[in-house]
Predict the 3D structure of the following.
Amino acid sequence: MNKRDFLKSAAAITAVAAMPVIAAEPSKPLPKDWIDKDTGHRIIRISEEDDSKSLYFHDSAFTADGKWMVYDSPSGIMKVDLATWKSTVLVPGKAWRTLMVSRTKPILYARRFVRGADGKPGGAELASVDMSTGKVTGIAKDIKGGITTVNSDDTLLAGTWAERNYELQPGPKVAGTDGGYNAVGPDGKPLTFAAAKEVRMADRLAQNIPMEIFTIDIKTGERKVVTASTDWLNHVQFSPADPHQLMYCHEGPWHSVDRVWTIRTDGSQKQNVHKRTMNMEIAGHEFFSFDGQQVIYDLQTPRGEDFWLATYDLKTHKRIWYHMERDEWSVHFQISRDGKLYAGDGGDEEMVAKAKNGKWIYLFRPEIIEDLGVSAPNAADLVRPGVLRSEKLVNMKTHDYRTEPNLQFTPDGKWLIFRSNMHGPIHTYAVAVNKAA
C-alpha cells in the first residue's frame, strides 16, 4: 500500500471510529405454532435449538408404534412425543448421531465417526439406543466405510467403503445450510451453489475410486461384500419389508450415469431399475414405498424440461409415471404409509427445474390416466401414465434450498416433517396435511 492509500485508509478508519455505535436490534423470537396465511395449513416448530435437523428423507425417523420421532440437535439425539410435540434429550452430547429407527423394535441405531491422532477420519462406531431409557449398546467399532441403512428384521447393517476419501465440499461451509460446494467456472469466477455442486460431482465420478457395498451382521459383526466397482456407489437403502433387498445408486451428474439399481445381499439379481431412452434423460433420488414393493424416483424427460414421479413394481415389473408441472418439481419426494398420497419439498429457481414459483412444500394426490375404452394391443407392457394433483402446504419463499427440507410423513399420515432455515437457523418443523379448521 502506498503512502496516499495508507493515509486515506487511516482517515476512513478514524471517521468510522468517531461515528456513534448503534446497538444491533435483538433478534426476533422464532414462531412456534402458526397458520400459513398463503395455504391455510398449521405449522409447528418442533425443535428448540438452532441447527436442529430432521432425518434424511428415506431414513426411518419413527418408532413402529407411531408414538415417537427422533432428530439431531446440538444437545444430542432428541426424542419427540408425537402426541404433544414435546422434545426431550434421548442421547446427550455431539458424539452420537442418528442413523435410523428400527422399523419393528423400540430402538434407535446411532453412529459416530472417530478421528485418529492425525485428525483424519478413522473407523466408524455403531450402537443401538433403547428408546425408553436412552441406554447405548455398542454393535461394532472401527468400521471402515460409512453405514447408511438397517434392514427390516434388524439383522444387518449396510453401507459403502471407498479406497480413498474425496472431499466433495472443500472450503468454508455456509452457516444455516447443509454445507457448501466451491468451484469456479472457465472465467475464474465462483459458480452458483447448484453449478458448483455439478462440477464437484463430475470430478468425483471421474476419480474412478474402487468402492464396495458391504453388510455387517448386527449379532456377530461379520462383514460381507455385496458388490464392488470403480463406479461411485451411494445412497444404499434396505427395503422396509424384505431384509435381503438393497437399493443403491451410481452417483454423479444424473444425465451421465445409470443411477437406480437393486441387488440382493448375497450379490445376486443386480439390475438397473431405469434404462434411459433419450439423451439427457435423468432419474434419481430413489426410495422405497413402505410395503417394499415399489421403487419410486424423480424422472425428467429430458432433464429440466418434462417432470415425472416414476414408480417401478419389483414383483410385477409394471411402471407408472405421474406427470407434474415445472413449479411442482421437488428436491425430494415422499409417499404416505398407505400409498395414497405423495409429497414434495419444492425447489428454487437455481435448481434443475428453473422453477419461477417452486418454493413450497407440496401435497400430491395421484390420478391414473385411464384408457378411453380401447387399449393399445401391447398396453400391458407399456408405462401407465398418471398425473399428480398438487396442494400447497407451506410457503417456503424465505427458505434457502442449500438446506434440503427432507420431508417425511408421520406414521398416521396427518403431518409432514421437514427441516428449514425459513427463519434463519435450521430447525425441524411439522405441517398438517389437512387445512386448519
